[in-house]
Design brief:
The protein has 369 residues and is of the alpha+beta class. The chain has 11 helices and 10 strands.
Length: 369
C-alpha cells in the first residue's frame, strides 16, 4: 500500500508494534508495508499499519506537543458524536487496553509511550486529496461541511474560551497595526535558517506596512458581521479532504486536531481559499469562482445572508494574518519546524497571493446582505 502524500516509514518496526499494541488486546498487530506521512509543519509522526487478524487498516498518530489533553479529548468526542449521528467522514479513535501503567482510564483513547510521547490510533480512511478541483470536488466539499456543521451544532461547547472568526482576525490585525517590526538581523538567529526567509520577511514588511495597505486594513476592520458560533473543523484545507479514485465521492476529512468553537464560515473560507491559493491565476471572489459550492451549502444549512461575505473576508485577511503568524513563530518565538522547505513554500504562496487579497479587501462591501 502506498498512498499519495506518504512515503515508506523509517521507524523501527518493533517500536511501531509496541505502540500499536497498546490499542489491541491479546495479539500484536502485524505491520504490513508501514508508511509514514511526509513531515508536515508540526512534524508529528503518522504511521499506517494493518492488523494481522482482521486485515483492517489503522493510522497510528503521534499527538502534537502543543495540544492540551482537554483539546485532544474534545476532538475525539466530536468525531464519535458526529459518527453516531450519521456523519461518518471524520476519523474515529479506537480505545486502548489497560496493559500497563502507561495508559489511563481517564484518557481511554490516548496511550503514552515509554518516551513520553502521546499516541492515538484511528480507523484508516482511504482516498486521495485534490489540489486542483473541478466543480464536483468543491460541491462535495461544501456538502460535507454543511452536513458536518448541521450535525455538530448539537455537540458540547468546549470549556476553554477562544475568540471566534472575525473577532480573532480583527484582534490580530489591530495588533499588527500597533507596531511595525524591523527586518530581522541574520547575526542574531540560527545560521541554519534559510536566507530566503529573511528576504521574504522584508518583502512582507514592505507590503503590509505600506501606507496604502494600512488604509485598506483599517477600512476592513470597520466591517461588522453576524457569526454563528458552534463546533467547526478550522483546519479543513484541501490536503485534509480525501476523495475516491473516481473523484465522485468524498471518503473522509482527516487531521481534525485543530477543531474548536468558531464561525462555520471559517471552514468554508479555509477550504475554498486553500484551493484558490493553488491557482495563482484565480483572483476573483470565491463565490464567483465556485457559486455551485455556496449554493450546495445553502441547500443544506441556512448560514445567514452575509455568509459569502464572511467567507471572503475571512479568507482574504487570513492571507495577511497567516504570513504574520509564520514570521512571528520563526523570528519572535524562534520555533523550529522539521521541514523548512514546506514553510518557505507556504510563506511564498501567501506572499504571492497577498496583492490580490488586498485588492479584494479594498473593494469589499456587504453585497450579499
Amino acid at each position: 500500500m502506498h498512498q499519495p502524500g506518504y512515503r515508506t516509514a523509517q521507524l523501527p518496526i518493533d517500536r511501531i508494534r509496541r505502540i500499536a499494541g497498546y490499542f489491541f488486546e491479546g495479539t500484536q498487530p502485524r505491520v504490513l508495508m508501514p508508511t509514514l506521512a511526509e513531515a508536515g509543519f508540526s512534524g508529528s509522526t503518522t504511521c499506517i499499519f494493518t492488523h494481522q487478524d482482521t486485515e483492517h487498516k489503522y493510522v497510528l498518530k503521534q499527538l502534537p506537543h502543543h495540544l492540551s489533553m482537554e483539546q485532544i479529548l474534545w476532538t475525539q468526542g466530536l468525531a464519535t458524536f458526529t459518527r453516531n449521528h450519521g456523519f461518518s467522514l471524520l476519523p474515529v479513535a479506537v480505545p486502548h487496553h489497560h496493559i500497563n501503567g502507561l495508559v489511563s482510564a481517564a484518557t481511554p483513547k490516548i496511550a503514552v509511550h515509554t518516551d513520553g510521547t502521546l499516541w492515538q490510533c484511528l480507523k484508516f480512511i482511504d482516498g486521495k486529496p485534490c489540489k486542483k478541483p473541478h466543480s464536483t470536488h468543491t460541491m462535495l466539499g461544501a456538502e460535507a461541511l454543511a452536513a458536518f456543521h448541521k450535525v455538530a451544532s448539537a455537540f458540547q461547547k468546549p470549556r476553554w474560551r477562544s475568540l471566534c472568526g472575525w473577532q480573532r482576525r480583527r484582534k490580530q490585525l489591530c495588533s499588527m497595526l500597533a507596531s511595525r517590526p524591523c527586518p530581522p538581523d541574520k547575526n542574531t538567529f540560527d545560521t541554519s535558517l534559510p536566507s530566503e526567509l529573511f528576504a521574504l520577511y522584508t518583502q512582507f514588511i514592505q507590503l503590509v506596512y505600506a501606507p496604502e495597505t494600512i488604509v485598506i486594513i483599517r477600512n476592513a476592520l470597520k466591517q461588522k458581521m453576524t457569526a454563528a458560533h458552534q463546533p467547526t473543523l478550522k483546519d479543513c484545507w484541501w490536503p485534509h479532504l480525501l476523495f475516491s479514485n473516481s473523484d465522485n465521492h468524498l471518503s473522509g476529512i482527516i487531521d481534525i486536531d485543530a477543531a474548536g468553537w468558531d464561525d462555520p464560515a471559517v471552514d468554508m473560507a479555509r477550504l475554498l481559499g486553500s484551493w484558490q491559493l493553488e491557482n495563482p491565476k484565480s483572483h476573483g471572489n470565491l463565490i464567483d469562482i465556485w457559486p455551485e459550492a455556496f449554493q450546495k451549502y445553502r441547500d443544506m444549512v441556512e448560514p445567514g445572508a452575509d455568509f459569502p461575505f464572511r467567507v471572503q473576508i475571512l479568507h482574504d485577511t487570513s492571507i495577511i494574518c497567516g504570513m504574520d503568524r509564520w514570521f512571528s513563530w520563526i523570528f519572535r518565538e524562534k520555533r523550529e519546524f522539521p521541514n523548512m522547505s514546506l514553510v518557505l513554500q507556504r510563506i511564498t504562496t501567501l506572499l504571492h497571493a497577498a496583492p490580490a487579497a488586498l485588492r479584494r479587501l479594498e473593494h469589499s462591501h456587504n453585497t450579499y446582505q
